Amino acid sequence: MALWCRARRPCAGQRTCTVAAEIVWVDQRASEFPGQVAANVRVFVSDEPAAEVPAAPAGAFFLVMTHNHALDEQITKRSCGAVTISTSD
What we know:
The protein is an alpha/beta fold. The chain has one domain. The chain is 11% helix and 24% strand. The protein is built from 1 helix and 5 strands, in the order ββββαβ. Strands 3-2-1-4-5 form a 5-stranded parallel sheet, covered by helices on one side. The longest helix has 10 residues, at 69-78.
């Protein structure tokens, strides 16, 4: 699962995450990530989060919850063909 979002989301920010998946958490703001994340979560800081979509593993699901509707749209368009859930604050 690829997670593009604000860092203050439940589960991925906890030390133990019961989601049975490898999670790649992408955000522009390194300062927003918690100090520790679950073992199955890898954080990735990118100035261009939408540009990271092609690097997602084949068959990845995308959960897009950024702070910006335009960025949500860019990521969702680039993840075309994948199962994508998108929502902004």
